Every structure is written in structure tokens, then in C-alpha cells.
Amino acid sequence: MSGSVFGSMSAEAADIQTEGYTEENTEEYTQENSEEAAGDAQSGIVTTDGESSQGQQGISENSWRYQNGELITGVQYRARTVPYPNAWQKVNGVYMNSAGEPIDGAVSKGIDVSEHQGKIDWEKVKADGIDFAILRCGYGNNDKSQDDKTWAYNVSECERLGIPYGVYIYSYAKTTADAKSEAEHVLRLISGRSLTYPVYFDMEDNSTINVSAEVKGQMAQVFCDTISAQGFNAGIYANLNWWTTQLTSPVFENDSWSKWVAQYNVTCDYSDPYDIWQCTSTGKVSGISGNVDVNFWMNENTSGGNSGGKKSGTTLAVRRGNEYHFKYSLADGAADLIINYGYKNDEILVGDWDGDGIDTLCVRRGNTYYFKNSLSGGMADVVVNYGRSSDEVYVGDWNGDGIDTLCVRRGNTYYFKNSLADGTADSVVAYGKRDDIVLTGDWNGSGTDTLCIRRGNTYYIKNSLADGQADVTVPYGRASDHIVVGDWDADGIDTLCVRRSNEYHIKNSIESGGADQIIVYGRSNDVVYAGIWN
């Protein structure tokens, strides 16, 4: 509205970093056109609080992008004279707009779909680099006849294939009673489902334009409160014109609501924080016949994030062969995302390779590194040769720029590289002994990762990339313990977790003493990684 890559392809194919498509009709949505569409709309019947106004059998969508239930094409858009061939694709690890410019803040690429797209081949969609989907579950009040005809199929396919998804409902609400019924419509369909993305209240139908701003706010409040009360994240979808002229009630300033903004343009011009930008309705994705809406999830610096600006902490992923089970919380239970990636004997590194705040995987084969910037299928986004195949390699943000890169260790000498590129190291440091066990992390919250030497159950932590004495020495756990490092409580400081079988003893401070939290996850023979996955 957020994989597999190397498992079945040749090494030659894996060296191809991107696969673009040509969007033949790249267009811009203009606010003037949106206002014209709004002005031509039927006024509708405006009611106040109380009994539902919806007598909805036989209703059809009519809005800036629908006419009598059919998607409008070529009416509200201004075509670009020279379309960029890789519009809305990732090129060299960066998403590009229809003018061939990087999309500032774009973290992942998604689509939103409904019965208008017909039957979708979701395996092809996933393989085409789509990171997430927002599925229409239905429209209007809580009537089974108004469920989206493809909802059950689409949601089951996303869950089967591990495609993260959220949902939206197309609203015809004119009263808070209507909004309550529409929320109950959604809850009936998502009960027991595993949503990763929010539930969106799609406010765009022409029949609701003359509903007052105050009542629109009241409806949104009732809808979002009803959804949130059941433990789901809630949000609002509207186009730029609606956000600036229709959704003006103060309730829309609620930081806990996700905002999804539609503007068919080379950039999104909405000035307030938002999470999703719907950039075009003429996207081309393998597995979908015809056009599809393309969306980008925007990063925390641009959008404030779906969690209201609150940073996520480190959680776990277990590996079984080339299958990875990602958990978005420090709790037991089923994985939130399962993907296949690489070969079962690949060496895997974990890091935030593009600075979007989300950790992803890198396959290492010899001295070649295949970086993927999303937990999804498709080709590697960046391929780099660095060091020797016999090198021991560590991952960290060595210069505090928010991007993880590599460090080669040879004996007790460490060669740090501050970019995902070949060439000589940017800094070289000698530390500890050649047979020391080494951990990396941001031990003091400075934003820069440094080294920690482990000898038995004693940890010698250095808060700078320099030789000399340790800054902190801490005993913790047993000499036989397996250690996992992470920022478990999202305070910006990495600490230690002791793993014993499938039990994890998490400490939220650099000190000895009992664990702050103990969780059980996976199996005792699982390979485990730590990261911020969502």
C-alpha cells in the first residue's frame, strides 16, 4: 500500500541487478483535475448521526478514479511526452519515478487490488519485486453481498506465499452509523487473519462530497476506533485534493492513524506525514492482466511511520535450509513472514543495506556479495566483490550514516569499508587477539557500530573503532552460551541475548545479572538471525 532470489537461478542470472519494465503511459495526476472531478460530482444526501443512510444494493463506485463502477483511464491525467522506461522500478537499489528521478524516502513497493484486477497470479506478482499488497475486502456496509469477489482468493494467496498485506474498504458512509457498519464489515472478513499493514478507510466516493468536514471526521473516528479496538492498525485513504480540502477536521491529525495519499505525479506533494504514496494507476506487474495501482511505503523520516514515529526493536528470524521465518515481535507463535532465499548452504549476512531502517539479507559466495534491499523475491539489488573468499566478515554501520557495510577480519586486524563497493578499506584497526570471538554492535547509542571481544563469558566492549583498552567489561551468561546481539527494546543501544536451545534470555542493558525477558521461539537446531524486519 511490503523472498526468494537465488534458489533456482544460475549464478550468471544472479549477477543481473535489476529487471525493468516499460510503462508506456506514464502520467501525472494533477490537483486541478481532481478538483474538477470533485466539482462535477453528485451532491448526494447528507445525513447526521443515527441510523445508517445506506440502501446499497446495486451501488457503484463514482469518484475521481471510478465512473459507475468502472476504472477511469485517460480522463484525469496529463501524459508525459517522454516516459522513463523504468518508471516505478528499482534501479541500482533506488526506486525511480516516471521522470527518471529517485523517489526520496521510498522503502518498499506495493500494489492495491480488488475484483477489478480479476484473478491474479500471486506467485508471478511476488517474483516481480512486489513487497506488499493492500487488498480490497469489500465496499459499504456489512452485507455479504458487498464483499469483494476476489477477497478470499487474494488473502489466501498472500498468506500462502508470505506476501505482507493490509486491507481497505471502499466507503459510502454518510453517517457514523454507516462508518461503524463498514468497520464491522472489515472485521468480519479479517478475523483470524495475519495483517502486516493497516486497515484503510477509503474516502473518495462522490456521493459523500457534501457531507460536512465535521461529520467526515466523526465517521473516520468511529471507523478507526472500531478497527483499533480489535488490535489492528487503522488508516485513511484519499487523494491529495481530498486530504487538503475535504478531510480538514482536526481528528485527521491523529498520529496513530496511517495516511495513504493518492497523487498521480512524479512526486507526492502532500505536506503532512504520510505512510503510503499511490503514484500511478497504470502500473504493469507480472501476474496481473492490465493496469494496477502502484504504491510506495515511505520511510520514517518522510512519513512518520505507521507506528506513529516509534522505532521498532530487534526481533528474531530462524533459518531452515533456504527458508527464513521472520518474527515481528519478541514472542512465541507463528512467523509473521516466511520467504525462500538463496541456497541452503549459502552464508548469510544481515544488515540495513540501503538505510531504510529495515534489515534484509545478503548472500555471500566466496568474495562476492549479493545484497537484497527488501524481504522479497527478485534479483539482487547490489552485487559487490570485496576482500578474499577466506576472509572472516562482519557487518555494521561503521561511520554512523545509517547504512550497514562490511568489515574484513584477518587475524586481529580489521578492514572497514564505509560503502557497498569494492576497493581499499576506509580504515584499518588492530584490536584484541587473532583467536578472539568478536561481536559487533552500537554499544553506547552513538549511531556507530564498534567491536566487542568475547572470552569465555566475559565481554570487552570498545565504543570506538580504535585499538587500546576496552571501555566496558561485563561478565554475562556461560562460556558455552550462543550469543545474539540486538537492540531489543528500541532504545538505540545494542545488548546481548543468550540462546539456550530454543530459549532466548534477553538483556536490555550492558551489565551482568538476570535476563529482562525470556522467550521461546523455533527449534533447538534452527539457525538464528537478529534484525529489524518490519
UniProtKB/TrEMBL annotation:
Where does this protein have compositionally biased stretches of type Acidic residues?
21-38
* Keywords on record: Glycosidase, Hydrolase
Q: Where is this region: Disordered?
A: 1-62
- Quote the protein name from its UniProt record: GH25 family lysozyme M1 (1,4-beta-N-acetylmuramidase)
Identify the species of origin.
Answer: Faecalicatena orotica
BP term (GO), one: carbohydrate catabolic process
Listed InterPro entries: GH (IPR017853), Glyco_hydro_25 (IPR002053), Glyco_hydro_fam25_subgr (IPR018077), Integrin_alpha_N (IPR028994)
Q: Which PANTHER family match?
A: LYSOZYME
**Which family does this protein fall into?**
Belongs to the glycosyl hydrolase 25 family.
The UniProt regions of compositional bias labelled Polar residues, in chain numbering, are 44-62
Name the Gene Ontology molecular function terms of this record.
Answer: lysozyme activity
Q: Report the SUPFAM superfamilies cross-referenced here.
A: (Trans)glycosidases, Integrin alpha N-terminal domain
RNA-binding listed as a keyword: no
